[in-house]
Amino acid sequence: MSEQEIKIDIDGKAILITGGTGSFGKRFVETVLKNHKPKRLVIYSRDEFKQYEMQQTFDTKTYPCIRYFIGDVRDVERLKMAMNGIDIVIHAAALKHVPAAEYNPFECIQTNVHGAQNVVMASLANNVEKVIALSTDKAASPINLYGASKLASDKIFVAANHFSGEKGTKFGVVRYGNVLGSRGSVLPFFRKLAAEKAKQIPITDPRMTRFFITLQDGVDFVLENLTRMQGGEIFVPKIPSMKITDIASAIAPNIEQKTVGIRVGEKLHELMIGCDDARVTLEMNDYYVIQPPVMHWKNDYYMKHGAKSCVEGFEYSSDTNNHWLDSSDIKEWLKQFDEKELERNA
């Protein structure tokens, strides 16, 4: 039996999102307000100016369920206060810039690792129903500190289910690749160079491949997994791979590409499921489930919806992915992406 369309059941729930003023947070808030009726929607972040900017779009008079709560995930007492009466937590706060993490390791650890522990402790203290943490493909076999810190974060959220018990808080993780069009991503950077009629587009390495997902698909995937999660899973969507050179060709076909070398902490290809994790991974129709090493539940839900165990030695890597977009596919994909963005902002 294949999995049917997931019914998102968050109406009447009090929801808090850490890092709520980021690209994901803003789209998450927009999506929830458009399609659901939460009791309360708390945007938790440390930047007052970004909260001020966000209030110009989502003001509390038009949307009385919204609360803006200034705080840092490094501050466990502030988190505990913010989570009072909260049912669902989405943990999106993180230091994400790879080179910045390499040069500022203490700051990266404070936010991405200690912050994850604080979110867990505050959630347990307030008997939150469900918590989903956002992760990254860089957490699988990491070579940079950002990826290593998110791997540690993933482990913290998976293990948190041991402390909450069978009927306590459920913790899960969503892991996906580069988000198309998010701040600091390659799409707006290449488009900026094309608009400026630059003479060259810098390419770190012509062999480089990446997983890509749209921001809306990322938000939808998180919402779906809030419903299906049993506790301790790492959810990985099936998404396309692209060559960086093909993205550049799709956006600026007439501009020369110049190889500038791989940046500090970068990989040629990204990995979302390694062969060791594959032993405990289930394949669904359009996503994978990395099961926790110790389960407090039976995997009946996944098995009755057509789950298959991954074969020995399986890896989900951006260079061996069976779903590819070449430059012509990317042009069409970007066209559809832009049309959806225009329709969304109309």
Q: In a nutshell, what does this entry contain?
A:
The protein has 346 residues and is of the alpha/beta class.
Describe the structure in your own words:
The protein is of the alpha/beta class and 346 residues long. It has a domain at 14-176 and 215-238 and 272-314: NAD(P)-binding Rossmann-like Domain (Rossmann fold, 3-Layer(aba) Sandwich). It is 39% helix and 21% strand. It contains twelve helices and 17 strands. It has helices at residues 23-35, 48-55, 76-82, 98-103, 105-125, 145-164, 186-195, 215-228, 244-251, 275-278, 300-304, 327-345; strands at residues 14-18, 40-45, 66-70, 88-91, 130-136, 170-176, 178-180, 200-203, 209-214, 234-237, 241-243, 256-259, 271-273, 281-283, 287-290, 308-309, 316-317. The strands form four sheets. The chain has a ten-stranded mixed beta sheet with strand order 3-2-1-4-5-6-10-15-14-16, sandwiched between helices. Strand 1, helix 1 and strand 2 (40-45) form a beta-alpha-beta unit. The longest helix has 21 residues, at 105-125. It is globular and about 55 Å long.
Proportion of beta-strand residues: 15-25%
**What is the rounded distance between the termini?**
39 Å
CATH topology call of the domain at 14-176 and 215-238 and 272-314:
Rossmann fold
Mean pLDDT: 93
**Can you tell me the residue ranges where pLDDT is under 50 for at least 5 consecutive residues?**
none
Rg, rounded, reads 20 Å
Helix content: 25-40%
Regarding CATH, which class of the domain at 14-176 and 215-238 and 272-314?
Alpha Beta
Shape: globular
Q: Please tally the β strands and state the result.
A: 17
